[in-house]
Write a structure and sequence with these properties.
Blueprint: H1 4-31, H2 39-61, H3 74-83, H4 88-120, H5 125-141, E1 152-153, H6 165-191, H7 194-204, H8 206-211, H9 216-242, E2 244-245, H10 252-265, H11 270-294, H12 301-319, H13 333-337
Antiparallel strand pairs: 1-2
Length: 344
């Protein structure tokens, strides 16, 4: 029998995490015209920053010598599981530290990576970030302090001290939705701000923006700082939700799934990004729940997801390139004072 409540919690949690990625990619590519094919790099970077900080600091602050009992070793993993629910303040404090650190690290690296590339030529940004993500994944597979190809496991969750598993899930879902709401508010304010209007001008005609005196490379690098920082935050939430990370979670397909979300929902429209993320994550979770119930083993949700992503992108680009929710007008104070144009 299908656990409907469990399905909804699982879907909404993943929706919240993917929606953060979709909103930020929409801001980068839909609003600003920056082609980012390396979204998964910043997502994975945030996940590893959060996971590594948490497991090492958790053991150190509990008096464990990590040189003898490293967190990627079996004894370290067992110890993390035993200590996870002992100190609620430590769990919550490490989550806050991980979110802040992941935002800064991913954001600064996004800025430093993109600024010189944009100065050379904006056409190189997408593929340079794509290859950087792959290099990062290969590096992680061979870097033993973060567990190598096995990754890090038994990451103590912020609510591990709560005895009821279902209540823990609901509390974490509330946390994810709160972060998603904050991300939406920030993206909405930025999109409708003078900076947002400048970014649309850069997207529509970069040469004209340069002629008007706009520092285009700096503007685009700033966009990458903001988008990459929030992607790092989404990565931390994923690491805490799954309580583990490994390099194979951050393959290029993740980036293209997020691209499919914003293409389907509507480039340049924040609500479209949410709609696209809702549809794709629902299909993904529904396949994961329903397929085992049917006893069908030849149909893997991963294969169906890949097929669906490709098919949807082709159909949408052919028949509705503006997406389900096309880009709307920019909301400004002057527009509101005029009564939204129609009534003014």
């Amino acid at each position: 029998m299908i656990d409907v409540v469990g399905f909804l919690i699982s879907w909404l949690t993943l929706l919240g995490i993917y929606a953060i990625l979709a909103l930020t990619l929409n801001f980068e590519s839909g609003t600003s015209g920056v082609t980012n094919f390396g979204k998964v790099f910043f997502y994975g970077l945030g996940a590893y920053v959060g996971a590594t900080l948490t497991v090492y600091l958790f053991l150190l602050l509990n008096g464990v010598d990590v040189s003898k009992t490293p967190p990627y070793d079996v004894s370290g993993i067992v110890l993390l599981g035993e200590l996870a629910g002992k100190n609620p303040a430590l769990n919550l404090g490490l989550l806050a530290l991980s979110l802040a650190t992941a935002f800064l690290v991913a954001g600064v690296i996004g800025y430093l990576l993109s600024y010189p590339i944009i100065r050379v030529g904006p056409a190189f940004v997408g593929f340079t970030l794509l290859s950087t993500g792959e290099l990062f994944r290969i590096f992680l597979q061979h870097y033993e302090p973060v567990g190598g190809s096995r990754g890090l496991m038994s990451i103590p969750g912020p609510f591990s001290w709560v005895p009821q598993p279902r209540l823990r899930e609901v509390l974490f879902l509330a946390l994810v939705l709160a972060v998603l709401a904050a991300t939406y508010l920030v993206m909405d304010r930025l999109t409708n701000s003078p900076l947002g209007r400048t970014l649309r001008a850069v997207r529509d005609d970069e040469v004209a923006a340069l002629c008007m005196g706009k520092h285009v490379p700096k503007l685009k690098a700033t966009v990458l700082f903001i988008g990459s920082g929030f992607s790092g935050v989404a990565g931390v939430l994923l690491a805490y939700y799954l309580t583990s990370v490994n390099p194979d979670m951050f393959v290029p397909a993740v980036t293209f799934n997020v691209w499919a979300m914003i293409i389907l929902g509507g480039m340049g429209n924040l609500r479209g990004a949410l709609l696209g993320a809702s549809i794709f994550t629902f299909i993904d979770r529904a396949l994961s729940f329903v397929t085992p119930q049917l006893g069908v083993t030849v149909i893997s949700p991963d294969y169906v997801r890949g097929f669906a992503v490709g098919l949807v992108m082709v159909l949408v680009l052919l028949y509705r390139p503006q997406g389900l929710l096309p880009e709307g007008r920019v909301e400004t104070v002057a527009w509101e004072e005029l009564g939204g144009g129609a009534s003014g």
